[in-house]
Design goal:
39% of the residues lie in helices and 18% in strands. By secondary structure, the protein is of the alpha/beta class. Helix 5 (132-147) links the parallel strand 4 and strand 5 (156-160).
C-alpha cells in the first residue's frame, strides 16, 4: 500500500480537521510519564491506551484507579486527550460473556473520567464451532448487553478489523446486526490491506459510514518494495 493512498483515504473520510494519536501498544517500554512527555513533544493530539507497559488492562492500575484524577490532570496540562481505550473484550466469543461484561463495567467509569470518546473491542470467537453468521449473532447479543450497562451509551464502541474479522464482508455481518449508533468499526488498514489483501477502496465501500476510526501502523522497510506506513489513528 503506497503512502499516498493513506492520505487519500483520510481526505475521503474526514469531514473535519484530522487529529492524530498513537497507541501505547507501539511503545510498551514507556511509563506514563514518558508517554505524556513524548506525545506532547512529538505533536500528537492524543493517546490510545492499549495497556501500559506489562499490563494490557489499564483499569486495574493505580494510575487509572486511586490516582485517576491526577492522571486526568497530567494529560490536560500536557494538552493531550485520551481519545481511546482498547479493551480485551471479544464480543463474538460465547465463552467470554461474563469476562466481557466485567471488563466493560470497569472501563466505563475510567473512560468517563478521562473524557474518552472511543472504546475498542475485538471480535474473536471460535470458527471451529461456529459459522461467521453464528458468531455475528453472538456478537450482536453481547454488544446489546454491553450497551445496556450504565454509562455505556456515552461512548462509541468500535469493533476492530482483527483476528477472525479481517475481511470487511465478515465485519459487515456484525455491523448489520448491531445498528445502534454507539457501535461502529475501527478499520485497521494494516490488517485488511496487508494481511487480508483488500484494496482500501473496497473496504471503505463495504464498511461505509460505520467506520468510526482508522488505524495505520508503522512498517519497516526491510523488504524490497515496502514503502513504510504512517503511524496514526484518526477519528
Amino acid at each position: 500500500m503506497a503512502f499516498i493512498e493513506g492520505q487519500q483515504l483520510c481526505q475521503i473520510k474526514s469531514r473535519r480537521p484530522m487529529k492524530t494519536s498513537f497507541t501505547t501498544l507501539g511503545c510498551p517500554a514507556w511509563d506514563l510519564t514518558r508517554i505524556i512527555e513524548q506525545g506532547s513533544r512529538l505533536g500528537f493530539d492524543g493517546v490510545d491506551f492499549r495497556g501500559l507497559q506489562d499490563d494490557l488492562d489499564i483499569t486495574a492500575l493505580p494510575a487509572f484507579t486511586s490516582a485517576l484524577q491526577q492522571t486526568v490532570t497530567r494529560f490536560a496540562d500536557a494538552g493531550l486527550v485520551v481519545n481511546g481505550i482498547s479493551t480485551s473484550l471479544k464480543v463474538c466469543d460465547d465463552t467470554m460473556a461474563d469476562a466481557n461484561l466485567e471488563e466493560a463495567r470497569r472501563t466505563i467509569p475510567v473512560a468517563m473520567a478521562l473524557g474518552t470518546e472511543t472504546i475498542r473491542v475485538f471480535g474473536g470467537g471460535h470458527p471451529d464451532r461456529h459459522s461467521k453468521q453464528e458468531m455475528a449473532d453472538i456478537g450482536q447479543h453481547m454488544m446489546m448487553r454491553v450497551l445496556e450497562l450504565d454509562g455505556a451509551s456515552r461512548f462509541k464502541w468500535v469493533f476492530e478489523t482483527h483476528d477472525h474479522w479481517i475481511s470487511s464482508a465478515d465485519c459487515a455481518l456484525l455491523l448489520e446486526r448491531v445498528t445502534a449508533p454507539e457501535f461502529g468499526a475501527l478499520w485497521d488498514v494494516g490488517h485488511t490491506s496487508r494481511v487480508g489483501g483488500e484494496a482500501p477502496a473496497d473496504t471503505l465501500q463495504a464498511l461505509g459510514e460505520r467506520v468510526s476510526c482508522e488505524g495505520c501502523r508503522p512498517r519497516s522497510r526491510s523488504r524490497p518494495g515496502d514503502e513504510g506506513w504512517l503511524a496514526l489513528r484518526a477519528s
